[in-house]
Specification:
The chain is of the alpha+beta class. It has four helices and 13 strands.
Length: about 260
């Protein structure tokens, strides 16, 4: 296991890297529930055999994929980070744009490149032995894709730049981790104000007609118009403004 310290404006991140594990999110969740958390931890694995996505989906943790998780304490009130998944998605998209990657956020926090999925983000919480809370944020980012994995739903950074050295990937991970910590700090201080202001410039499908899928409802079409201060997606369905709560619905571009 390799260990190093990443310096950020928000404190040090203790970083470690292993060749293989089941899931870096699971590793950190198990550890901090048992031992507590006094600072910020990052765990990277070159391969994950049981990588997880949102809603119990499996993430392909093999091949050319940067995979890591960040654990950070957030205090006693889990409600203080309501909507943090949107802020993290926005922060990662902006960090990628700073690297020349025209990334967009598909609500709530999928990262798209050329309308295909470039990165997935999994945000989980844990209660620590001292009754404080922590977040564990897992990131899977496609650097390159095997020929067998190429399809119309996936994208990779290799489409923008054909050469990503190990050093460049490591530096990108450090920048993304810093962006995640900054986003959580911003939400704790000011809620989603910054994310709402940024949304129109980074959101996928903005002002476009999409199909909205909700449980126990027939899919319907609506025009996306933004998000509100609570992180709900706003869409216009005829004369009605529809609010979608994260985890209670999904969107897909109308074909």
């Amino acid at each position: 296991m390799i260990e190093e310290t990443i310096e950020t404006p928000f404190g040090q991140i203790l970083s470690e890297c292993v060749d293989e594990t089941g899931s870096t999110n699971t590793d950190l969740l198990d550890r901090i529930r048992r031992e507590g958390l006094n600072g910020i931890l990052l765990r990277r694995a070159r391969n994950q055999t049981q990588a997880r996505g949102t809603r119990g989906r499996k993430w392909d943790g093999s091949g050319g994929c940067l995979m890591f998780s960040v654990a950070l304490p957030i205090g006693k009130d889990l409600r203080a980070v309501s909507g943090v998944t949107l802020a993290i998605g926005a922060a990662i998209a902006l960090a990628l744009r700073n690297q020349g990657v025209p990334a967009e956020v598909k609500w709530p926090n999928d990262i798209l490149l050329f309308n295909r999925k470039l990165s997935g983000i999994l945000v989980e919480s844990a209660k620590l032995p001292d009754h404080q809370y922590a977040l564990v944020i897992g990131v899977g980012l496609n650097i390159s894709l095997k020929e067998s994995a190429l399809d119309r739903s996936k994208a990779s950074l290799s489409e923008v730049s054909s050469n990503y050295s190990d050093e460049q990937i490591h530096q990108l991970m450090c920048e993304l981790a810093t962006a995640i910590v900054r986003a959580v700090d911003e939400v704790l201080r000011n809620g989603l104000k910054r994310t709402v202001l940024l949304w129109d410039t980074i959101a996928a499908y903005n002002n476009q007609t999409v199909e909205i899928v909700q449980e126990n409802k027939q899919p319907y079409e609506a025009i996306l118009i933004g998000i509100d201060q609570d992180g709900c997606l706003l869409a216009r369905n005829g004369q009605e403004i529809v609010k979608l709560i994260s985890g209670m619905g999904s969107i897909r571009l109308k074909k």
